[in-house]
Amino acid sequence: MLDKADLDQIRQLLQPIMSAQEAQGKKIDEHSKALDEHCKTLEKHGKKLDEHSEILAKHSEILESHSKTLEEHGADLLRINITLENQIIPMLTLLMEGQQSIIDRLVPVARVEKLEEDVMVLKVAVRELSGDVQKLKMAQ
Predict the structure, then answer these.
(1) Is the pTM above the cut of 0.85?
(2) Residue 102 contacts by C-beta under 8 Å, 6 or more apart in sequence?
(3) For residues 34 and 41, what is the distance between their CA atoms, to the nearest angstrom?
């Protein structure tokens, strides 16, 4: 059988092993806590990724909508350009030609002013001559 000295000696031999086991147990606990924290962080990141995925999906929908709107506006712009080329520009050209013919037939301003002066002179002359004729009729 083993006596007390043998047991003490076995205890002394096992002491470093038990200390090492205890230290490893503490390390395992620390690693377990760190692992738990990493899991929580990964869960948070997963939630954030899900939120970002939803935001990206919404942005994709908005982008598709804007693309469709741009395509519609492009078609509208094409129709407007065709209308301008085929209807409005020819009408404006005709209008411009009509205005030009009117402008060509208009009497220049200087000539109108000269005619107005001549008319004023003639009015004065007619008044004086009418007065003279009246005086001659009365004198007879």
Answers:
(1) no
(2) none
(3) 10
Mean pLDDT of the chain: 93
Query: Which of helix, strand or coil describes residue 107?
Result: coil
3-state SS assignment for residue 1: coil
Residues 89-123 have pLDDT tens digits of 999 999 999 999 998 888 788 888 999 999 999 99
107 — alpha (psi -120 to 50), left (phi > 0) or beta?
beta
Ranges of each domain in the chain: 108-140
Distance CA(134)–CA(140), nearest Å, equals 10
Can you read off the two tokens belonging to residue 87? Answer: 């209807």
Cα 12 to Cα 135: distance, rounded to the nearest angstrom: 165
Would you say residue 34 has pLDDT above 90? yes
Q: How far, in Å, are 4, 85, 123, 130 from residue 91 at the CA level?
A: 124, 10, 46, 55
Q: What is the pLDDT of residue 83?
A: 95
Is the C-alpha dihedral spanning 57, 59, 65, 70 positive or negative? Answer: negative
Residue 42 in tokens:
């990964």
